[in-house]
Amino acid sequence: MNTDVFSLYESNVRRYGRSFPAVFTRALGGTIWDETGKSYIDFLVGSGALNYGHNNPRILAPAIDYLNGGNILLSLDMHTAAKREFIEVFVDTILKPRGLSYKIQFPGPTGTSANEAALALARKCTGRSSVMAFTNAFHGMSLGSLAVSGSASTRELGGVTRHDVIRVPYDGYANGAFDSTKYIDYILGDPGSGIEKPAAIILETIQAEGGMNTASALWLTEIQRICRNHGIVFIVDDIQAGSGRTGEFFSFEFAKIEPDIVCLSKSLSGSGNPLSIVLIRPEIDVWKPGEHSGTFRGNNLAFVTAGAMCKMWSDKNFTDGLKRTAVNLQKALDDLVAKFPKFIEEKRGRGLMAGLKCRSPTVVDRVHDVAFKNGLLIESSGPNRDVIKVLPPITISDDELHRGITVLTQALEE
Ligand SMILES: *Cc1c(COP(=O)(O)O)cnc(C)c1O
Fold first, then answer.
1. Are residues 274 and 379 in the same domain?
2. Where in the sequence is the domain holding 222, given as residue range(s)?
3. Position in ligand 1 atom list of the atom nearest CA 204
4. In this structure, what CATH number is given to the domain that contains residue 368?
5. Ligand 1 within 6 A of 391 CB?
6. Distance between CA atoms of 159 and 167, rounded to whole angstroms?
7. What is the pLDDT of residues 14-43, one digit of tens each?
8. Given ligand 1 and candidates 138, 245, 353, which is best to mutate, with the most ligand atoms within 8 Å of its CB?
9. Is 31 in the pocket of ligand 1 (CB under 6 A)?
10. How many distinct structural domains can be found in the chain?
């Protein structure tokens, strides 16, 4: 496979091209092929942006019709029929069945655009400037999102200072030595704490990039209670954990909470097309018309595929299939933990969002390389890159899941 053009002309910044040194051409469901015809099971899925698999026919069919029909592709934030249909479907199949009521903001198409909009809105509606964010958080690569992210390597990018960010321990941080909800509640109530009341608390219910750290329902409920008590905007960054990844549409459904703002992106379009939304509790939708903007807010092809994805959630075969696949995946990972105690410390995550915390990054690197050689794409996460991130498409077939787990098992054996 000829990769000269990438090393000659593409910036040094390229990462996945180096760790998966193939040239990919076609893909379907949970399988992706390279130029030589070699197939790989995909447990990377565009870092959570392809939850519904590659080229899902239920999602692509309406998009192909849309493209063939001479329809609008880009519309800024003008009204289009495709956008109307998406909003209707999202409200009817996702929000209403869950008893949720939100206004929908369409920011730019990336996850970080959604987080930037959420943070700006929280600051505007509270008149406060600081934001509380957690250890090992990842919220994106633009300056506002970087500021609330935890990782040292990205934090130093562009010399971003952490003005206005209050860093607090996530659930279970420091080996569970610390109950951060009690701490947060206390410092917010103590005029001598030296910590001002923030505009918002922003969090991921599972910190994917941060090492698959998983918040409990109780902890999340406490954070929501604290936010309500102190008049703080509660933002859930559901960019990676949402859109079905945990087996439920929103990652926080299991905790029965109702955040003030929810950010969705990554798998929201169902197709890998870029699309983001910010869900806003109606009372805090204090934007003035045009106050926040973005050229690519009107990606109509993504509205069409997102609508097709949302409709799948009212199909019981689909939701039953998710539950079954989640159980199979969790069981397979439990078996790996039991079989390789020397290498694996614990299983992390929930539902179809899973990770294996290993005892050293060397193990993870080896597993990655051997898995790639044997036809499995899998990546690592965590501040020390010692967590194997296991993200099969949530629609993966039993056969593909089995093959992926088999390669992973062989890699651990090797
Ligand atoms: C990927 C991700 C982002 C950033 O999304 P981009 O589209 O890369 O800007 C933000 N938050 C979380 C939790 C993510 O996983």
1. no
2. 60-312
3. 13
4. 3.90.1150.10
5. no
6. 18
7. 999 999 999 999 999 999 999 999 999 999
8. 138
9. no
10. 2
